[in-house]
Design goal:
- This is Receptor ligand binding region domain-containing protein.
- It comes from Streptomyces olivaceus.
- Keywords: Membrane, Transmembrane, Transmembrane helix.
- This protein is of the alpha/beta class.
- It is built from 16 helices and 18 strands.
- Strands 1-2-4-3-5-6-7 form a 7-stranded mixed β-sheet, with helices on both faces. Strands 9-8-10-11-12-17 form a 6-stranded mixed β-sheet.
- α4 packs parallel to α14 and α7 runs parallel beside α8.
- It is globular.
- About 45% of the residues are buried.
């Protein structure tokens, strides 16, 4: 029986070589052939590895940049284990959209998809809630209309800096069977967000609908905002304090000093609205302003950063304090007050009121520990918010509750049953951003346009009006009815000044929240752009 070493059994070897004695030349030729094939195979494998090692997915939709996977994809990718369920649901809904027989359009959710590094733009909870809100909006649109929306996961990185990779990919997807018609998301009011729109989306004429941007510095003809601006949030505070008994003499302002667009804009708005009439002065002798070094993202700050500011505030016995900072700064601020003996007040003293603004009622700002801090130090926190989910969930029949909120909340409850995930406001706002795009798509198709494009959606987003009961078309958002205000025609533009476009929500309600005690608000509900006696918004 012939063994494997018997070359007469090697069928791949030419017959003349199997049955003859190999000479030196034959051996050299044979081994040269083997070496050549081995080298070619190794080179192909190495080249293939080098070609694919920079990508996270086989279709090369996501490129590996450091520890992140950057790019745009319609398929669920394991950015983080916490997102597995919602990414899978969206991928399944995308597949149903593509096989529905309807016209399909794509909408990109532009934001970070991980939160591993200190200072990341969004926490993992906010990322999950945002995607859940967008999914609820996607599913509602696809089940109720003749068009279908496919959501694209567009990861710009934890610090938002990889926007060019994303915007280039979106520009390339404007055609085809499921063309990109808009992008939603954009979580932070900062320079990199504006750069992404100005240099990435505007040249491609893709409208960006931000869910939570509020700084008035976020101005671009292709940037629509679902959140009230900082001016409007502070106007709601003004309406509240004018209708309620708030100390307007013993005032103080504490502001984050970082070069952060959002907090810098908020500080400027507080200055503009309250400084002179409320006696907030930076006079060298009777100074009533202080600063601190705040945080953004998942970093933690200690109460020590507020030490000097709190000492100065309590030294002048301030009773009304304006806090120009982010949600994460509130707890260490209260801890600093609790630790400062000069801040301790008697039970009969006028309470210390902290006036601030926020997207929603983040759970971290209303914990039992925060409740105890506030009660022990006779503190009342007054916040103007874009979303007041706890009150809206309890307010069945209340005319201040947005009509579409209950339907949204029931759908969301299937994703996060019994949780307080709606409280931070992100799920509601991302839902409303997608609903705004979906509403525009529906109106474009009603006008007779069969193939909806990004230009059609951009134009339609500017057309709505809340007048005559929204006859021209409103967005039925979970945070209230609204349209977008185009201020470009009426803006006064002087030489060298920055162009104003507006595109902020019209008739958006801005509730006021008090903590730890829920007080009955004597002021009317503030609605953006509504001027009592001159115009009137429809019920939210």
């Amino acid at each position: 029986m012939r063994g494997i070493r018997d070359r007469r059994t090697w069928r791949w070897l030419p017959r003349r070589l199997r049955f003859r004695v190999l000479g030196l030349v034959d051996v050299v030729v044979l081994w040269t052939l083997v070496a050549a094939l081995t080298t070619a195979g190794a080179w192909w494998g190495l080249d293939s590895y080098r070609h694919h090692r920079d990508y996270c997915t086989s279709n090369r939709d996501l490129r590996r940049v450091g520890q992140e996977c950057i790019g745009v994809t319609a398929e669920a990718y394991s950015f983080d284990s916490d997102l597995g369920d919602i990414l899978g649901r969206i991928e399944d809904e995308n597949e149903r959209a593509r096989t529905s027989g309807k016209q399909v359009v794509s909408v990109a959710v532009v934001m970070p998809y991980t939160s591993r590094s200190p200072g990341a733009a969004m926490s993992q909870d906010l990322i999950r809630h945002s995607l859940q809100g967008a999914y609820v909006g996607q599913k509602a649109h696809n089940e109720g209309h003749k068009s279908a929306i496919q959501l694209l996961f567009a990861n710009v990185g934890e610090d938002l800096s990889h926007w060019k990779t994303v915007t280039d990919a979106l520009a390339a997807r404007r055609g085809g069977d499921a063309p990109v018609v808009a992008a939603i998301g954009f979580p932070n009011s900062d320079d990199v967000t504006l750069e992404a729109v100005e240099k990435g989306l505007e040249p491609a004429q893709i409208p960006a609908v931000s869910a939570v941007l509020s700084s008035r510095e976020m101005e671009n003809p292709y940037l629509f905002k679902v959140s009230p601006s900082t001016d409007q949030l502070v106007d709601a505070l003004q309406l509240y304090v004018s209708a309620n008994e708030i100390d307007q003499k013993n005032t103080f302002m504490i502001a984050d000093i970082r070069p952060d667009n959002y907090v810098a804009n908020l500080r400027a708005v507080f200055d503009k609205k309250f400084r002179k009439p409320w006696g907030i002065t930076d006079d060298k002798v009777e100074r009533r302003t202080e600063t601190y070094q705040g945080i953004k993202g998942s970093e933690e700050v200690t109460s020590q950063v507020f030490g000097g500011a709190v000492s100065a505030m309590c030294a002048v016995d301030a009773r009304t304090v304006f806090l120009a900072g982010r949600d994460a700064d509130l707890q260490p601020f209260l801890e600093a007050i609790d630790d400062a003996p000069s801040c301790h007040r008697g039970p009969d003293d006028e309470p210390l009121r902290i006036l601030r603004v926020s997207t929603g009622r983040a759970p971290d700002t209303e914990t039992e520990e925060m409740h105890d801090f506030a009660e022990r130090n006779s503190i009342e926190i007054v916040t103007a918010v874009a979303v007041d989910a706890p009150r809206w969930e309890d307010g069945d029949g209340d005319e201040r509750v947005p009509k579409a909120f209950a339907t949204f909340a029931r759908s969301y409850d299937k994703l996060e049953k019994g949780s307080n995930a709606l409280d931070d406001g992100y799920a509601v706002m991302y839902h409303d951003a997608l609903t705004a795009v979906g509403t525009a798509v529906v109106h474009v198709m009603h006008s007779g346009t069969e193939d909806v494009s990004h230009n059609d959606v951009s134009d339609e987003l500017r057309r709505g009006s809340p007048s005559t009961g929204c006859a021209v078309g409103c967005v039925s958002g979970a945070s209230g009815l609204f349209t977008f205000a185009d201020e470009s025609a009426e803006a006064e533009e002087s030489a060298g000044s920055k162009r104003v476009y507006g595109l902020w929500p019209v008739c958006k309600p801005v509730p006021i929240v008090t903590f730890p005690v829920k007080r009955h608000d004597k002021s009317p509900l503030y609605r953006t752009y509504e001027v009592p006696g001159k115009n009137a918004c429809p019920a939210p």
